[in-house]
Amino acid sequence: MNNSEKETAVENRSLPVEDEDEDEWDARIKKTGCYKENEALLICHFDTHDWRKCTSEMKAFKDCMNSYKKAGI
């Protein structure tokens, strides 16, 4: 391997990604059991850029959170 090949090989290597601590928000949502509903809501908003177009996802998340609150967990 010549010098330019070595330089290219070094440039093409990706840096190791350190494991990040779980985001505090995600941890809280996962604890409620409503992570799937929250993800669907966030994806809808990302895709549409309009919360008003995500009413079914918002309702599902709200219902899930209300169930969690009623359970008193």
Automatic annotation (TrEMBL):
Residues 1-22 are annotated as: Disordered. Residues 1-10 have a biased composition (Basic and acidic residues). It comes from the Eukaryota. GO terms for biological process: mitochondrial respiratory chain complex IV assembly. GO terms for cellular component: mitochondrial intermembrane space. PANTHER family: CYTOCHROME C OXIDASE ASSEMBLY FACTOR 4 HOMOLOG, MITOCHONDRIAL. This is Cytochrome oxidase assembly factor 4. The lineage of its organism: Eukaryota, Fungi, Fungi incertae sedis, Zoopagomycota, Kickxellomycotina.
